[in-house]
């Protein structure tokens, strides 16, 4: 398990990739992990923890999470 307590670009990219994988995002290719800033680390980590804590998501949940992810981009 990664130590996600350090706000590094590497951790941001790891969390974004994990979120995309878990949500099975159809638009994952358009959502590059490098488009996210360490400055939004806590927000990204919060979103990551929500996604990591659930096994399945409804369509509306996926849409809401993807929308939130979009707002966190640089």
TrEMBL record:
Please report which protein family the annotation says this sequence is part of: Belongs to the UPF0435 family.
Query: Protein name, please?
Result: UPF0435 protein ACFFSY_34160
What is the species listed in this Swiss-Prot or TrEMBL entry? Answer: Paenibacillus aurantiacus
Q: What is the lineage of its organism?
A: Bacteria, Bacillati, Bacillota, Bacilli, Bacillales
């Amino acid at each position: 398990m990664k130590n996600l307590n350090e706000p590094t670009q590497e951790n941001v990219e790891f969390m974004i990739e994990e979120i995309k994988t878990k949500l099975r995002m159809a638009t994952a290719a358009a959502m590059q992990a490098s488009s996210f800033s360490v400055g939004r680390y806590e927000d990204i980590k919060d979103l990551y923890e929500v996604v990591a804590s659930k096994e399945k998501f409804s369509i509306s949940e996926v849409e809401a999470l993807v929308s939130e992810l979009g707002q966190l981009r640089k």
